[in-house]
């Protein structure tokens, strides 16, 4: 999975001809239909991940809280992947595939996004506790 994320990020950074003007700047400007489609793909990825965990004995089929947590995490990871794809101007089918993979990865995708951001922009130096 990390290889897929690394490949995606490498392709996105090397993509020619993508300008900031081609990307929508307001996340609220997308139609609800598009968000519904993206969230459905991410949630389906999360459902597949949860089902695999149940089959492997890592999760219990009747544990609704675990399923809910998996689906919420998948939706969040898929939404982050969608916004990154939009930012980098990815084509629609690739965007949908990456949203599904991010939804399936769940927490691992969020960790990969965090690692990428730390490598690219450094660590946050706000509150020094």
Explain what you see:
The chain is mostly helical and 129 residues long. It has a domain at 31-118. It is built from 5 helices and no strands. The protein has helices at 2-14, 32-56, 64-88, 92-105, 107-121. Helix 2 (32-56) packs across helix 3 (64-88), helix 3 (64-88) packs antiparallel against helix 4 (92-105) and helix 3 (64-88) packs parallel to helix 5.
Helices, strands, pairings?
Elements: H1 2-14, H2 32-56, H3 64-88, H4 92-105, H5 107-121
Helix pairs in contact: 2-3, 2-4, 3-4, 3-5, 4-5
Radius of gyration: 16 Å
Count of separate DSSP helical elements: 5
Q: What's the total count of β strands?
A: 0
Kindly report how far apart the N and C termini lie: 34 Å
**What is the average of the pLDDT values?**
82
Largest sheet: none
Topology as a string of helices (H) and strands (E): HHHHH
SSE class: mainly alpha
Low-confidence spans: pLDDT under 50, at least 5 residues?
14-20
**Overall form:** globular
* Percent of residues in beta strands: under 5%
Helical residue percent band: over 70%
Put the structure in a nutshell.
The chain is mainly α and 129 residues long.
Defining traits:
mainly alpha; globular; 5 helices
């Amino acid at each position: 999975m990390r290889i897929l994320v690394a490949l995606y990020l490498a392709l996105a950074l090397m993509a020619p001809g993508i300008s900031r003007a081609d990307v929508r700047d307001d996340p609220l400007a997308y139609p609800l239909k598009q968000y519904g489609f993206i969230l459905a793909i991410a949630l389906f990825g999360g459902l597949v991940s949860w089902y695999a965990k149940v089959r492997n004995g890592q999760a219990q089929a009747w544990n609704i809280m675990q399923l809910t947590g998996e689906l919420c995490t998948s939706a969040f990871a898929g939404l982050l992947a969608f916004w990154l794809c939009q930012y980098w101007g990815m084509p629609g089918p690739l965007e949908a595939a990456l949203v599904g993979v991010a939804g399936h990865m769940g927490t691992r995708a969020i960790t990969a996004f965090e690692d990428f951001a730390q490598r690219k922009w450094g660590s946050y130096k706000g509150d020094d506790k």
